[in-house]
């Protein structure tokens, strides 16, 4: 399995962009291998993100490991705060 970050390259929200950058920054700095999927490029990417999240209205950024949903930005930040990022990412 591999960690996947679902993100939006096109967003009118500065907050969404900051959250996506924060996740990229943390994963890169901790040398955690991950792939990024831009949900704005193909509708099926957004559909996949929402299916994995089991939420028909889920918005990016969302994180998964394979087909196993990890969580959204708030859950990611909480995992960092309590020192359980690897458990959160299921790695």
Structure description:
With about 90 residues, this protein is an alpha+beta fold. The chain has a single domain (about 5-90), classed as Glutaredoxin, CATH 3.40.30. The chain is built from 4 helices and 4 strands, in the order E-H-E-H-E-E-H-H. The chain has helices at about 15-30, 45-55, 75-80, 85-90; strands spanning about 5, 35-40, 60-65, 70. A 4-stranded mixed sheet has the order 2-1-3-4, with helices on both faces. It is globular, with a radius of gyration of 12 Å.
Number of strands: 4
Question: What is the overall silhouette?
Answer: globular
Q: Find the structural class using helix and strand composition.
A: alpha+beta
> Looking at this structure, what is the CATH superfamily?
Glutaredoxin
Which segments are poorly predicted (pLDDT under 50) over 5 or more consecutive residues? none
If you compute it from the alpha carbons, what radius of gyration comes out, rounded to the nearest whole angstrom? 12 Å
What is the count of DSSP helices, taking H or I runs of 4+ residues?
Answer: 4
- Terminal CA distance reads 9 Å
Fraction of helical residues: 40-55%
Spatial ordering of strands, largest sheet: 2-1-3-4
The overall pLDDT, averaged over residues, is: 96
Q: How much β-strand is present in the residues?
A: 15-25%
Task: Provide the CATH top-level class.
Answer: Alpha Beta
Number of domains: 1
Pfam family, one: SH3BGR
Organism: Oryzias sinensis
Family: Belongs to the SH3BGR family.
Protein name: SH3 domain-binding glutamic acid-rich-like protein 3
């Amino acid at each position: 399995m591999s960690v996947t970050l679902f993100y939006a390259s096109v967003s009118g929200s500065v907050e969404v962009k900051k959250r996506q950058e924060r996740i990229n920054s943390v994963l890169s700095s901790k040398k955690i291998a991950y792939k990024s999927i831009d949900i704005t490029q193909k509708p099926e990417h957004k559909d996949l993100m929402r299916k994995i999240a089991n939420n028909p209205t889920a918005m990016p950024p969302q994180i998964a490991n394979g087909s196993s949903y990890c969580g959204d930005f708030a859950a990611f930040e909480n995992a960092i705060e309590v020192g359980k990022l690897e458990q959160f990412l299921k790695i």
